[in-house]
């Protein structure tokens, strides 16, 4: 099912709004939502998956390359248009502030990587960013970095967000996904025009004292006593037993330290929707992989940026007729989910999320990637965002 938007005039929005957003009309049925981790034991096992053996699965994860490169003949001019009035949501900390202009590019703390296991049962990652929400617990990325488009299972497994990730380091903790939200048309029909997702995450978690004790007796403070029934559900690598002098067996599970809310630690970008096409945006992400000519331009290890004006685009190959594009040399692997920030201000490293990369293309056919594309952020996207905006997650340490 394809949503057809009426073409019409566009009204640009500028400045920061402290309050009073005019919410566009949207049907509740347009939002699809699926749970990710629903219990403390599930969260602990997901953390264990990524942190066991000195963060081996994090370090060895590869960039997700599903649906990344779009054939050039399938990228053409299109006609996205707003479906209601333009609007913005201010970033965390910018609700009543304005930022001065700056020429130097200071990279945002909000950007990081989402890690998950794919249909191949291997570890992968995409780019993502923290965005404003009622409980400072929301992450935005491409829809196919959350929903399993290969097997049509509901969601990808072991889903976590790590802001500022670098070579196995998790400076602000690991944030396990709680609930995923996307548009109904992407969840059911894989509509490329709706290839975006918002995920609520629990408070960040860190290993106790940054290390794992081999034996419970070596560091009792790093473990918590649990029931035998709970013990049986924990990953074997994060559980242990001891026997007291009376011969009674005690059951233990790894303890994790609460690192606080995502938005409190790294901030959260604002959101802009129904904006005029043709505005300049900064694109922030972790591109990796090679250009078609074999040149390995990016490692995926460090956060990169590009800058350009958006333009209307189409990509029928991924069922997308109402996209926006931007000139960018970001290669597809790793850059999927990159944040497109409108009116980005260096002094606060904040702006308005106005796109997420869902694919790249070599449009001039010179064997070099030159274009990134994103769904157009309209009122239906805002409806999905608002469905996720007020969902509490809290601590599950």
UniProtKB/TrEMBL annotation:
It comes from the Bacteria. Keywords: Signal. The keyword Signal applies. InterPro entries: Peptidase_S1_PA (IPR009003), Peptidase_S1_PA_chymotrypsin (IPR043504). Residues 1-27 form the signal peptide. This is Peptidase.
